[in-house]
């Protein structure tokens, strides 16, 4: 059934909350961070390494997996995408909407769906809400996302309203098609409406026409200011059902996550920990360092003395800088492992802090740390 997550809140401090819900492939403890596995792999990491980091769920990209290798190939494997990538814990798949709408010169939108040319080989494709649901059902993800039109930034109120209302019509079509037969997982709706409060409220009300088991907040982290994003979260998060998980898509820096948790958000995904690692940017409790900076050349200490990950227990900053300068794959892997550990450990700390009534202290510490690599921290 669509409302069978059984989401239970076990602790709360202000709007921040600790919860748990059950998916076909396991339990999710919230607030949760989902590493991004665009092509059926979290870049550089094996499933066993992700399990050792205690990643409970990863994200797969419907658009890219539809183009390569295609749902037919993935469907040859037992349990769909889980069997294909060797991951037996939960998977969330996005709808493909964000990627399609980013192809501004390669796609045409109408009420029924989107026609576009593949950025891989130029072939012609058609993607409707029903098609997105069919692909996600074939992938057998635990959480599928409704097909939507991601509203850009900046846009006029008229453009945002037109885009949001079409997304809401598509959301209802997505729900009806996804649940036409017993599904492999659950479908989340996506709130849109740009930076306009009344449109966000209208979007949430439109989604209430179907019993979505969870709600995502889309159309943020697309270029708006931090103040604009937090204002929309302040407006929309309290309006979403208290007994359903709330998912902020594509966010972000640790500070962004903590700020959203304080506003009642439960789930997050972002390429930042893996992408930053590939660019030499490594997260620490006191800010982000750039391992490529010369100051690390003779540093025999770990990335972060307070970190318990295997990279910090074994390797020095000097060694990681050496690997980066030599373009050794191991350097990217060790940095990725560290960054993912940092994010997943942060979520564990957040859950513990909320349960113990000290989330405000943790939030103050995280929010005070520099968010962008600059002068390396000691």
Describe this structure in words.
The strands form four sheets. A nine-stranded parallel β-sheet has the order 4-15-14-13-12-11-7-6-5. Strand 16 and strand 17 form a beta hairpin. The protein has 378 residues and is of the alpha/beta class. The chain has helices at residues 47-52, 62-67, 71-75, 81-85, 97-102, 129-139, 157-178, 197-207, 226-236, 254-261, 272-278, 310-314, 317-325, 329-355, 359-367, and strands at residues 8-13, 16-23, 26-30, 32-34, 36-37, 58-60, 91-93, 107-109, 114-117, 124-127, 143-145, 186-191, 214-217, 246-248, 267-269, 281-284, 287-290. The chain is globular and about 60 Å long.
SSE topology:
Elements: E1 8-13, E2 16-23, E3 26-30, E4 32-34, E5 36-37, H1 47-52, E6 58-60, H2 62-67, H3 71-75, H4 81-85, E7 91-93, H5 97-102, E8 107-109, E9 114-117, E10 124-127, H6 129-139, E11 143-145, H7 157-178, E12 186-191, H8 197-207, E13 214-217, H9 226-236, E14 246-248, H10 254-261, E15 267-269, H11 272-278, E16 281-284, E17 287-290, H12 310-314, H13 317-325, H14 329-355, H15 359-367
Parallel strand pairs: 4-15, 5-6, 6-7, 7-11, 11-12, 12-13, 13-14, 14-15
Antiparallel strand pairs: 1-2, 2-3, 8-9, 9-10, 16-17
Helix pairs in contact: 6-7, 7-8, 11-14, 13-14, 14-15
